[in-house]
Write a structure and sequence with these properties.
The chain is an all-alpha fold and 93 residues long. The chain is 75% helix and 0% strand.
């Protein structure tokens, strides 16, 4: 009988106070400063990579095309260009 009393009291409380309201979906407040900083960081990184590529291309222009140094510089340029492309794809800057 105590089980039925418990269910009756539970039903009475629910009827008096209403059903539980679903938790509101809380979104964090928009932090525009963070978004701008992220975008600025992205553009700074892109600018830095472009400067490094330009510098390596200048060094490469002073090398003999058939030299090992030329190939090494080209490999570094290709790596930086890949990193630049990934950054652009990931962040969409």
């Amino acid at each position: 009988m105590s089980f039925w009393n418990f269910l009756g009291e539970l039903a009475l409380l629910e009827w008096l106070f209403g059903p539980d309201k679903p938790d509101e979906v809380k979104t964090p407040p928009s932090n525009h400063l963070y978004d701008y900083n992220r975008e600025d960081d992205c553009f700074d990184r892109i600018h830095s990579l472009e400067n490094r590529i330009d510098e390596l291309e200048r060094q490469q222009s002073k090398c003999d095309i058939l030299s090992d140094r030329y190939d090494e510089l080209q490999d570094r340029i290709d790596d930086l260009q890949d990193e630049l492309d990934e950054l652009d794809d990931y962040f969409g800057c």
